Amino acid sequence: MKFRPCIDIHNGKVKQIVGSSLSDGVIGDDLFGAGRGGDGKESSLTAKSSARENFVSDNDGAFFGNMYREMNLPGGHIILLNPAGTEEYEADIEQARLAMEAFPGGLMIGGGITAENAERFLDMGATHVIVTSYVFKNGRINMERLEKLRSAVGRDRLVLDLSCRRRKTAIDVEGNSGIRVFAGQNAAEKCDYYIVTDRWQKFTDVPLNLETLDMFSEYSSEFLIHAVDVEGKARGIETQVASLLGGWGKLPVTYAGGVSSFEDLEALRELGQNRLDVTIGSALSIFGGSMDFEEVVRYLAEA
User: How far apart are the C-alpha atoms of 230 and 228, rounded to whole Å?
Assistant: First the structure.
């Protein structure tokens, strides 16, 4: 089990947030018109993103890139948490550029990546691009985009982020299941994990299961999976997600979400059958948490 460092960037700052609290708002003179005023002209529409923050660093991306390079921790990921096309997103990219310049060949990047702009980030120094939202449309897998993305960057430089959240489903008396909860006494609820997009805000109709992992493995060199319900809360891992991923084991998988102690790391190692890598955010001392960064690195190097 390897340690994979992270650099999460929001509003141009390296920070740690509660993943489930991320929300995109809209500020401008046309809240419903896709950026156009009543006269059809472009409005001053600006997308703003807010989140509950655990930690905001005074240091820039270069600081963290240098630290990870000096600790010999390749394979980490940068996540841009603002919507693409906003001023804040461009500020995020500038911090990402500083990090990648400080750690050449050491970092991946995700957030707003498409087949059209992926080359920009690879040219900037990213080893891989990490993608979720682009390959979904209206909550469903868009195979045309997935094929286009693989053609644009190659499977070996593509990482799919299959981050997930729990969602209630229902099973009717005949055993059929669906996302919409059935009313009445002849229905039983259960909770499954579904892939979420748009910076973890929107559910897809695609469950995280062995079949989904198998299908996406034809397009991706590895997976990054945040258990979003516990992301940034440092209250323990999602054991069901860890067990599922550890039981699959066909590609490298990095688990993120909820790690708050060395006991959590040991549980993740056991549930993941020592097949999973891990990233830790808010619980680390470098992000204001209680787990000493260097001790975590040593522990995982010996695991």
Answer: 5
Provide CB contacts within 8 A for 83, sequence distance 6+.
24, 47, 49, 89, 112, 199
d(CA 11, CA 86) in angstroms, rounded, equals 10
- Contacts of residue 224, defined as CB under 8 A and 6 or more positions apart, other chains included, come to 77, 110, 130, 159, 160, 161, 162, 163, 253, 254, 256
Contacts of 112 (CB under 8 A, 6+ apart): 80, 83, 84, 85, 89, 133
Cα–Cα distance between 263 and 103 in angstroms, integer? 30
Per-residue pLDDT of 102-125, as tens digits, reads 999 999 999 999 999 999 999 999
Distance of CA 124 to the CA centre of its chain: 20
Q: Provide the token pair at 17.
A: 């947030």
d(CA 184, CA 187): 6
Alpha-carbon span 11 to 80, nearest angstrom: 9
Residues 57 and 19: beta-carbon distance below 8 Å: no
What tens digit of pLDDT does each residue of 287-303 get? 999 999 999 999 999 87
Q: Please state, in angstroms and rounded to a whole number, the distance separating the CA atoms of residues 177 and 205.
A: 12
Q: Would you say 108 and 130 are in contact if contact means Cβ atoms under 8 Å apart?
A: yes
Half-sphere exposure of 298 (CA within 13 A, CB side): 5
- Within the chain, how many helices (H) and strands (E) appear? 8, 18
Longest Cα–Cα distance of the chain, Å, equals: 64
β-strands 129-131, 107-110: how paired?
A: parallel
Block residue for tokens 């094929």? 147
Tens digit of pLDDT for each residue in 137-185?
889 999 999 999 999 999 999 999 999 999 876 555 455 555 443 334 4
Kindly give, in sequence order, each residue whose CB lies less than 8 Å from that of residue 1, ignoring residues fewer than 6 positions away: 265, 268, 269, 272, 274, 276, 277, 278, 300, 303
